[in-house]
Structures are given as structure tokens and as C-alpha cells.
Amino acid sequence: MPTSTAHVATERPERYIKQLVAHMGHKATAELTIDGRGTITFRHGGCVLSPAGDHLRLIATAADVEALAGVQDVVTRHLLRFATREELRVEWTAPMRGDAMRIVDPVAEDYVLTHCTPADELLQELVATTRDATGDAAGMQISHDEGALLTMLVRMVGARRAIEVGVFTGYSSLCVARALPADGLLLACDVSEEWTSIALPYWRRAGVADRIDLRIGPALDTLRALPAEPAFDFAFIDADKANYPAYYEEIVPRLSRGGLIVLDNVFQGGRVFDPAFQGDNHVAMRRLNEMVVADDRVESVMLPVRDGVTLVRKR
Asked: Which of 25, 36, 240, 265 is the most buried (most CB within 10 A)?
């Protein structure tokens, strides 16, 4: 499902949104929220309209390029018709699929990496070892800035007991375990002895091996075998995406009040934004994202960090 955007310079973005939503409501499904965001849904596509200071931001989506052109045409024509006091210019970007989106610009990515607390020599060595030992799979390792975020969040929460679903070669485990107190515990779940064996010597060298309880086997089995009462303060989920909803449902009841869950890869490279992608991972992640925002047990915020990170705090 292609997407296209337009930023229209105007001093009256809110006024145009109200007019478009009111008018198009006779021909399509149209809604206006109290903060001024409008949505218009047609049979084969739709458009989101939002005020952005001195601009009107338009996001059009459709089933295919031809339908997208139709959405653009309808919205543009009606917008220009309402603009009796100023001359608007509506210039749409070229159609783009979800997997072609650049979530983090390379310039921003490099700047972020060089403007957080630097990774120490041990973490840098683990990155190099992972790259040499796992080849293309090394992309599963979290970035340094995300690792620094995990460490800071664990410390801010004051966590003593944590869960990690998806260990890989142990970079994220190190970041979490280092932030725990000396008597803290990280329950680390993974299915691969090969990859986690790379982690073990680094955990020992970091002096946190005694804080990490590594469980090899299906994580759902490990989680379901735990006592049902709240006992954990922090959780990081970065494993097989199709099981994210199940992992989430198992962890929430076992999370203490004020505890935090960090969910990684919630954008799936931009594919969750595009309904044309219907793979198991994409469907499961969309389901999870909707579950979280509708879950009255928690409060959440989704961040455009790397491939999307959602922070979920239990009420």
C-alpha cells in the first residue's frame, strides 16, 4: 500500500481540516479529534490531516498507485476549493512503500551514536566478536544507543528483577544486568545455545554472570512456568516477532506496579505502517501495537528509536 505526503504552507491549517472533514463526511468516513487531527477514509484509501504550526500536513495512503492518485486528487481539489483567501500549493511526494521508509536518517543515526555515553571496550569487543561469529545475523544485535537507553531505564525504574526475551549474543543482557543492584536478577530467555555461548564469557568478564539466569528453551514455556504474581520490575522483548503478543500477555501480570516493558522493532522496518505487508511478523506486530494502546492496565509511548521502541509502564 503506497503512501504519499504533502506539507501545505498556510496560516489556517485547523480551519481547512474542519472544512474537509465536514464536507467529505458526506462521501466517506470522516473524523475530527479534539486536538485538530482529521482522518478521511475512502473505499480504497484515505488521508490523515494534521496541523503543524504554519503548515497543513497530509498523509495519503491507498491500495495501489492508481487509487493513491485518486485520493490525492480528491483531497487536493477540495482543499484548493476552500482556499478562497490564499493561494495554496499542494505538492505530493512520490509514492512510497512501507519498507522503503527511512525511519532514522543516516546523519541523525551517526549523530545519536556519537552523542550518548560511549560504549566501553568490553561492549565494543562484543560487537566485533558478534559480527565475526554470526555474519549477517549480527544485525539482530541492538545498537549502542539503544543499549544505553536500556541501562538508563533500568536505573531510572530502580529495577531489581528483570526479564529478557531474546538474548542473541548478550549485548542487551549486559546493558540490563549492569544496571541492576548486586543482588539483582535478570531472567534471560533464548532458544540458541550457540549464540548465547558467545555471551557467557563477556558476562563473566563484566562481573554480572551471577545476576543472569539464562534459560534455554521456548520463552513462552519459561514465562508460563513462573509464578503468576507480580515479581519483576523490568522486561525487554526482542525475540521472534510472531510471539510478541503472547510474550506481552505473559509478562504484564508478572510485572510489578510501576514496572516497565520495552518492546523492540515495533515498526518492522516501516512495514507495520503498510497494510500491503501481511507476513506473520507484520500482522503480529500490528496486533501487539493495538493491544498495548487499548490496554487499560498500562500506559505507553511509542518512540521512533531505531526500528521503533515502545515503552509500557504498568499502572
From this structure: 265
